[in-house]
Design a protein that fits this description.
The complex is a heterodimer of chains A (270) and B (332).
Chain A (H helix, E strand, L loop, with lengths): L18 H4 L8 E10 L2 E11 L4 E6 L5 H8 L7 E6 L2 E2 L4 H7 E5 L10 H11 L4 H15 L14 H12 L6 E5 L7 H16 L3 E5 L3 H4 L4 E6 L2 E6 L1 H8 L4 H9 L6
Parallel strand pairs in A: 3-8, 3-9, 6-7, 7-8
Antiparallel strand pairs in A: 1-2, 1-4, 4-5, 9-10
Helix pairs in contact in A: 4-5
Chain B lengths: L23 E12 L2 E12 L3 E5 L6 H8 L7 E6 L8 H7 E4 L11 H11 L8 H11 L12 H13 L5 E5 L7 H16 L3 E6 L10 E6 L2 E6 L1 H6 L5 E6 L2 H9 L4 E7 L2 E6 L6 H13 L5 E5 L4 H11 L5
Helix pairs in contact in B: 3-5, 4-5
The chains are: A alpha/beta (270), B alpha/beta (332).
């Protein structure tokens, strides 16, 4: 897929082009973080991370527990203000335009995705409304989505009655209902059986092929191999970044497991 | 299928004719549990020997948590029976609970208490003290001690799991039930947790552990693969891999998506799945020569301008699990 697909010459200089027009302009990067930092008291959770994600790219956002991934992601989706540095997501500043960001991104996590006590249809209508879609648009997209997932005969089922694999595919589709330019997936395949996990990744590929940027976290290192590029965070910093082959080659290791061990437990390797 | 549930009575002669002896720490026969319309466990039978590290491998909804709750006396079965250390979890629950260490899947320690306070609390519930049990918990406590005064809520995911394990061990149980101790924990911390289990096993403890991570199966003496309340297979990890019934090949090349589509169109493709940096191709001809298939596939891909390295490989637990998911016979 894309390895380094820069679009036309438009640069995402902040404050340059006038806020009102920017959304309609071409955005060179779907995510562009520069020295993004977050401190909690004396603790620096995210320490000046710089990276970008291109449109249509699947970017793996890896790191040990407590490395700062969640804090970084919360800044990128506009839920937490940075202490320092800056980032644009879908062309909007995370510091000053968090409302616009939320309308232009999709987000799905293992913990929160859909409402169990609403039906499939009600969930789609609820999120369509939250994303500001017109009623007729919601109805069209609902039908298309349910047909694609083979769930048309289940639209009146409660979400809690669906098998986990269906639920996750539905949650992913709902996160894409408003056709965001960037989608954030926080451990989307945790606990899922290995076949459903692979089908889910095929959905990710299709989404990226249609031009959406995908940032995904996972604890399955084999899944990291499916990403176009990835970063590995250690103690709030990005310790490695590149294509899976690049990061392995530059560290002189043959698997991501080895690299991960070396970065997160320096001194542990014999 | 291994372990057919012929006779549901515990202690009854098994299919292989052997009568369970004192070597058996846990015996389950036809355990079945329903929640409303959902059949959470469907006639699950197995034995775990004393001193074994036995893994239950399966995704969410496989029945792992329900099974453990039945065995530690928190649920009663709708059908079937079990014995843990010779005790019946339904009728002998108070005797059993003193001898069992149980680490539930959800973190259930007191977040506002420190590491040391949580441990002291669990020790006291079982009428003992942390000092009296130092020998039992030593390998874990050594890693926790630097954080003894930290509130449990402020621990990292991996350290929380170690504290929970320590609390499950502090009354020196004869058997441990660990329900998904590594879920959501990063790969390196997971490896460290399994190192600890290996040391406890070396000390003679019987350990039953559940996990959704297929790669952890190799750390167990034996595993049961579980899917939707049913046992797909029980065996040693190496035997599960060795029993893979078709030739399996690894395919590596540049355009993985392109290769996936072309390989799935191959006339003898039983399945093709991405596996990390490579694709795994299962041929549908049980007796075919893997070397010949490798040459065929290389040529097949070359015809589409997709240069690739193809080589026969041994199946992993995950390959076996996926095969069983798609091909397991549904027991009557």
């Amino acid at each position: 897929m894309t390895s380094d697909r820069h679009l036309d010459g438009t640069s995402p200089v902040s404050g340059g082009g006038g806020v009102a027009n920017r959304a309609a302009d071409h955005v060179a990067h779907a995510i562009d973080a520069r020295a993004l930092t977050r401190r909690f008291g004396s603790f620096t959770a995210v320490d000046a991370i710089t990276f970008h994600v291109n449109p249509g790219e699947v970017f793996g956002f890896l790191g040990a527990n407590g490395a700062g991934k969640t804090t970084a992601m919360r800044m990128l989706i506009g839920l937490l203000a940075p202490s320092d540095g800056e980032a644009e997501v879908a062309g909007y500043s995370v510091a000053t335009e968090s409302q616009a960001i939320r309308r232009n991104i999709g987000y799905m996590s293992q913990r929160f995705s859909l409402y169990d006590d609403l039906t499939v249809r009600e969930n789609i209508e609820l999120f369509g409304g939250i994303y500001g879609l017109a009623t007729s648009e919601i109805a069209d997209r609902r039908k298309a989505l349910l047909e694609r997932l083979g769930l048309a005969s289940h639209e009146r089922d409660f979400v809690k009655a669906l098998p986990l694999g269906w639920k996750q595919q539905l949650a992913f589709s709902v996160a894409l209902l408003h056709r965001p330019r960037v989608v954030f997936l926080d451990e989307p395949t945790g606990g899922v059986d290995p076949i459903t996990r692979r089908r889910f990744w095929e959905m990710i590929y299709e989404t990226a092929a249609a031009g959406t940027a995908v940032l995904v976290t996972t604890h399955y290192l084999d899944e990291a191999e499916y990403c176009d590029r990835l970063s590995i965070m250690v103690d709030g910093r990005i310790a490695a970044m590149g294509t899976p082959d690049e990061v392995k080659r530059s560290a002189g290791v043959s698997t991501l497991d080895e690299l991960f061990l070396r970065l997160t437990r320096p001194g542990a390797a014999a | 299928m291994t372990e057919p549930s012929v006779d549901r009575r515990v202690g009854a002669p098994r299919a292989d004719g052997a009568v369970p002896d004192d070597g058996i720490a846990v015996e389950a026969r036809g355990l079945t549990k329903r929640f409303g319309d959902v059949l959470a466990l469907d006639r699950v039978s197995f034995d775990v020997r004393h001193g074994e590290l036995f893994g239950f491998i399966g995704p969410d909804g496989a029945g792992k948590t329900t099974l453990f709750r039945l065995l530690v006396s928190l649920f009663t079965p709708d059908d079937g029976e079990s014995r843990v250390l010779g005790l019946d979890p339904v009728n002998d629950l108070w005797q059993l609970r003193r001898r069992v260490g149980y680490m539930p899947g959800r973190f259930s320690l007191y977040p506002d208490l420190t590491v040391g306070e949580n441990l002291a609390f669990y020790a006291r519930v079982f009428g003992t003290t942390v000092d009296a049990q130092k020998a039992t918990i030593e390998p874990i406590w050594r890693q926790l001690e630097p954080f003894a005064k930290r509130r449990a809520a402020a621990l990292s995911g991996g350290m929380k799991q170690k504290l929970a394990l320590c609390c499950a061990l502090v009354h020196a149980p004869d058997i441990l039930f660990l329900d998904e101790p590594t879920t959501g924990v990063d790969a390196v911390s997971r490896g460290e947790f399994w190192d600890l289990l290996g040391r406890l096993r070396a000390g003679g403890l019987t350990i039953l552990v559940s996990t959704p991570y297929m790669d952890e199966a190799s750390r167990c003496d034996r595993v049961a693969l579980l899917q939707r309340g049913r046992v797909l297979r029980i065996d040693k990890p190496a035997a599960v891999s060795a029993a893979y019934p078709r030739p399996l090949l690894s395919v590596r090349g540049g355009d993985r998506l392109g290769m996936l589509a072309i390989l799935r169109a191959h006339p003898h493709a039983a399945s093709v799945w991405p596996f990390g940096a490579s694709l795994h191709f299962t041929d549908d001809r049980p007796g075919a020569s893997p070397a010949q298939i490798a040459r065929d596939l290389t040529a097949w891909l070359a015809r589409q301008d997709l240069p690739a390295e193809v080589e026969p490989i041994a199946a992993s637990i995950e390959d076996a699990f996926m095969w069983d998911m798609l091909h397991a016979e549904v027991p009557a």
